[in-house]
Amino acid sequence: MSRPLGRHEHGQNFLVDPAVPAALTAVAARWSPRPLLELGAGDGALTAALLRLGRPVTAIELDPHRVVRLRQRFGDTVRVHRGDLTRERLDRPVDVVSNVPYALTTPLLRRLLGAPRWAHALLLLQWEVARKRAAVGGTTALTARWWPWFEFRLHDRVPARAFRPVPSVDGGVLEIVRREHPLVSGPVRPYQRLVDSVFTGRGRGVVDVVGRRFGRDVAGRWAAECGVDRRALPRDLGPGQWAELHARARS
């Protein structure tokens, strides 16, 4: 069991329930064996579990005192570096695992999703944030902007009592998988501009918004062929419907 040291910064909550690292490791064990990059290693509760997979592990931690403790604990079995998880290079063929400080969730997600080459990410976030990113109950613009390139999967809910200090909300495990074959070809920005324009556009539902933006004929054919209800909102669309809308708008 890991016990927190020092200051509680950036909304960082340390795992004290050994069942949680075991559950995260069970998900990571399904991936093809790549080196593991742990962002925000803290006291090493998750690091120790990841080592059992038999893969090279690199742990990034900002607190210099914890860096020393991690090196003492794991020796040569883990590469421990002092660094800021929001600035760490993510352009390597690795899988990413992180118990994310809640205050850094959005900047880390943006940096992660914009980075090339990594294949899988397993993130412990606030429960409601994990649900939103996985489009449970409707998607958000952030998820829709990256859906053609990534799958978002919601796993276990983690009770607040599994952390110290105990946060005011439960955590949730979000898995992000890079698609082998993207749903959209070409550069990212034109597609993302389309998503933003639809989410912020005026209209009585997404079909009306698309019709005002790209023409009634385009909207009508897209809705009919992709099964989009006239009363649907942008939050109701799936990844394939967004990708098809982009293809029709581009043509």
UniProtKB/TrEMBL annotation:
Entry annotated with the keyword Transmembrane helix: no
InterPro entries, sorted: KsgA/Erm, rRNA_Ade_Mease_Trfase_CS, rRNA_Ade_methylase_Trfase_N, SAM-dependent_MTases_sf
Residue ranges constituting the Ribosomal RNA adenine methylase transferase N-terminal domain according to the UniProt record: 23-180
Pfam families per record: RrnaAD (PF00398)
SUPFAM superfamilies cross-referenced by the UniProt entry: S-adenosyl-L-methionine-dependent methyltransferases
Family in the record: Belongs to the class I-like SAM-binding methyltransferase superfamily. rRNA adenine N(6)-methyltransferase family.
Protein name: 23S rRNA (Adenine-N6)-dimethyltransferase
Source species of the chain: Pseudonocardia ammonioxydans
